[in-house]
Structures are given as structure tokens and as C-alpha cells.
Amino acid sequence: MYADTGTDAETIRRILRSAGDTWAVVGLSNNESRAAYGVAAVLQRFGKRVVPVHPKAERVLGEKGYASLADIPFPVDVVDVFVNSELAGAVADEAVRVGAKAVWFQLGVIDDAAYERTRAAGLDMVMDHCPAIEIPRLGG
Fold it and tell me: What is the DSSP string of 8-68?
């Protein structure tokens, strides 16, 4: 079991309300049955710009897609991670390299070492939570 890190309400509130409005969603494709698609749609309704990051680099929900975070030619505020835990740490490290302000690991995505590295780099981080669940809790 992982340490319950990065899950306090203040960090969640800060990321959702103050970190910025450009969210790179890693693992987002046009597959409407995947959780990433539904969460990205909620983020858009909440006023966030969603940037799809997926090897196919396809346009999703009206936004141009990119194959990696490094390919995005503009600043990204939050990196929302929908890849499995074994791959998530590398995504968190890339988020640090591209200058993101925060990293959000989705439900079931857990990597304590990546959490520690990301926080040590000065980024806010949430692990094993979903913004589509947290937004209504904040009165979104």
C-alpha cells in the first residue's frame, strides 16, 4: 500500500483552481469509452484547455494532439496521467522537464518514488485521484 501523499484537499484545490488552465492529458485518445476521454470532457466543461498526449497524436475534443509532452510547443500547467503506474514515473519526470506546475496521477496510478521526485522539483502533485470527481466536491 502506498503512503497517502498528495491527496490533501488543499493541494487538490490549488491544482484545480490556481495551477493554470492548460492540462496535458497523457493517454487521451478518441476512444470515448476510455476514462481519459470522459475526464477530459469534464475538464473542458470546467474551463480547462485539454491537450491530448498520445502516441497517435490525434485531435481529440477539438484540440490538436501531441505524441509527447516535449512536442507541445506552448507551456503546460498540469499534466494529468492516464498511463499505468509502471510508466507514470517517466511521465512525471518529463512534466518536470517541460516546466509544468503540477502533476495529477489518476485513480489507480501510484508511484511513490515519482511523487517524491516531482515534489522535490517543486511541483504540486496528486496521486490516485480523479479531477472529474474532485471538481464537484469543490463546488466546481
Answer: -HHHHHHHHHHS-SEEEEET--S-TTSHHHHHHHHHHHTTPEEEEE-TT---BTTB--BSS
